[in-house]
Amino acid sequence: MAKEVTSSVNQVKDEQVKSSLLTDLRELFKAGVLIANVLPVFTGFWLAIRLTGLSFSNHLSLLLMTIIGSTCVMAGALIINNWYDVDIDTIMRRTQKRPTVTGHMSLKTVLWLGILFSVTGMIFLWFTSAEAAFWAFVGWITYVWLYTMWSKRRYTLNTLIGSVSGAVTPLIGWGAVSSTFHIIPIVLFLVMFIWQVPHTFAVAIRKHDEYKAAGVAMLPVVHGIDITKRQTTVYIACLFPLPFLLAELGVAFVLLATLLNIGWFIFAVRGFFTDDHLKWARTIFLYSLNYLVIFYIAIIIVTAVS
After folding, report:
1. pLDDT per residue as tens digits for the range 123-170
2. In degrees, to the nearest 5, what angle opens at C-alpha 162 toward C-alphas 111 and 85?
3. Spans of the chain, pLDDT less than 70
4. Closest CA to 16 of 24, 5, 27, 26
């Protein structure tokens, strides 16, 4: 009987250790961000295959290498961000569960993991195409050096700089198949770049006090929420002409993307008529997430049935 109790206790402990490890890895890799970036990479790849007349089924191994490579590079950049930002992550409540803060992983281990994933991802992408590897490197160097290490704590332009790293994802996918010197991947880059600004502003408003305490130069912290609302509206308005540059994808898609832009713009304008900044920022944030998913899935659907 005693042996059975001891065995049960040990089993519970093992499960707790596994659960803790998975939680730490999820926080370290920022799993939600990684998963969100797979969709634009896949969409860029899918479009390049469809619009160049190639067979998707004959390029599944290339797709797999592209997804693995891009995800590893992004994971590496995010891990190094955790390593470098451990001091401000300790202050901000939203990041206090990261293993770099809790001490579940040593900073040396985290740094080497970031380097390992970054290098591994670049190798995978190099075997897809030099262009895909180039865009991944642009995203990596922008996020790790220009954003994390240089601008994040100094300038409100950190949001624009950081947006470049996320915007290269469709270029990586497309570049694995064909040259990105084409209007569609360029427009997808612009959509991702502009989209990230109001999305990030919404996060910065919701976490205003945390960013202020940590000394991060986010726009609402430095210049106030009213200016952030105005800039949010301006950036969303900048999305309006972009769907018309994707006319090759069909009228249905252009119409849907335009409606998405109109809806987001309306929610942005409503911010001028409310003092509940947190509720407004949450609406903008949630809309931005749905916007991106609908936008890219719609691209895949309309090109799959055409």
Report:
1. 999 999 999 999 999 999 999 999 999 999 999 999 999 999 999 999
2. 35
3. 1-19
4. 24
